[in-house]
């Protein structure tokens, strides 16, 4: 089950939340994206604000970085792990670009890299369509050549966050500090 949460109240209090953003692809809690104004979905269908996966590393570096943190509001779900924000639904989007220094906790299933390959001190950066065409809105471990990102998550601890979900597919979690590289 994908989870992303702020660790303390100051992050929630200072976060910029945009409830008008609409999904352009299946989105899970903790997925990362950019927000585009007047996004044309199809002929005649335009979203005033849309969550768009980063096309490449340059796009992830250039603009603000937003994350989906919706409440699970679909009572028909039998398993919260099945929760997704469908295309066209509204996303509760939070702008991470203005929250440097705040701590968050995330589950490892929103990171492309395997849980056992991510260590304390590693930095997680927004993935893009070139990294993972099937799930371009996840996070990925930065390598030595990655720099210029306004937002990254520096892993400060490996935790059991998310391990005790009903589906049991989460290897663990990460405590991270919002920073840049």
Question: How would you characterize this protein structure?
Answer:
The protein is built from two helices and eleven strands. With 181 residues, it is mainly beta. It is 7% helix and 36% strand. It has helices at 9-14, 57-62, and strands spanning 4-6, 16-23, 32-42, 45-52, 66-68, 90-95, 103-107, 123-126, 139-141, 152-159, 173-179. The radius of gyration is 15 Å and the shape is globular. It has a six-stranded antiparallel sheet.
Can you list the strand order of the major beta sheet?
A: 1-7-11-10-8-9
Strand percentage lies at: 35-45%
What is the number of strand segments?
Answer: 11
Task: Give the termini separation.
Answer: 28 Å
Shape: globular
Q: Taking all residues together, what is the mean pLDDT?
A: 89
Q: Residue ranges: pLDDT <50 for 5 or more in a row?
A: none
Q: Which H/E pattern describes the elements?
A: EHEEEHEEEEEEE
As a percent range, the share of helical residues equals under 10%
Quickly give the structural class: mainly beta
Count the DSSP helices. Answer: 2
Largest sheet: 6 strands, antiparallel
Measured on Cα atoms, how large is the radius of gyration? 15 Å
Characteristic terms for this protein:
globular, 11 strands, six-stranded antiparallel β-sheet, 2 helices, mainly beta, 181 residues, five-stranded mixed barrel, 36% strand
Could you provide a short overview of the structure?
This protein has helices at about 10-15, 55-60, and strands at about 5, 15-25, 30-40, 45-50, 65-70, 90-95, 105, 125, 140, 150-160, 175-180. By secondary structure, the chain is mainly beta. It is globular.
